[in-house]
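Human: We require from you a protein record containing the residue sequence and its fold in token form, and nothing else.

Assistant:
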Amino acid sequence: MMGLRSWDAANFGMMFSMWAIMMAGMMLPSASPTTLIYAAVARKASRAGMPVAPTAAFVAGYLTMWTLFSLAATLAQWMLESMALLSPGMVSTSPVLGAGLLVAAGVYQLTPFKDACLEHCRSPAHFIAEHWRPGTAGAFRMGVVHGAYCLGCCWILMGLLFFGGVMNLLWIAAITLFVLVEKVLPFGAGGGRLAGIGMILAGILVIALG
């Protein structure tokens, strides 16, 4: 994986699988509050003799959205490599690209769309109540909708993997922790906006030093 890459079908499939597994590992922790609430509702309904779809159907819907994102990320990686903007270690080789990713992520943190998506992710009980659908198809659809809100909240943060390194485990862990804190802790929303300002300043610094 660290040498020059020939983007044949097998290599594309390998990169896509890598992204899909990585997105599942990074995003499932932050979806755990909503998943646990769905599981609790399912257990209560089962005890009452009114079983609902298994939690796995909800999780499958959620992961479907991030699998689609993984396809887009693989295509983006392919494009960046073809333009010689990524190193063999999948890190940006261009200060302009790196700064652009930081500034774009920072600006997005301050947008109303980000706030709206984050609010759905931070209100799992409200989400379950508002979007409840019966049956396996309904549970899968709920997962897709929740995944769509999480995608709207976090997609550009995943773009920062191209800045810090797609294979950099510490960078992956840092982004995963940031997403989790932003969605779960009381100060997450405000902290996310402050982090956005920090990303913008960091992007300007990268340009200045580059």
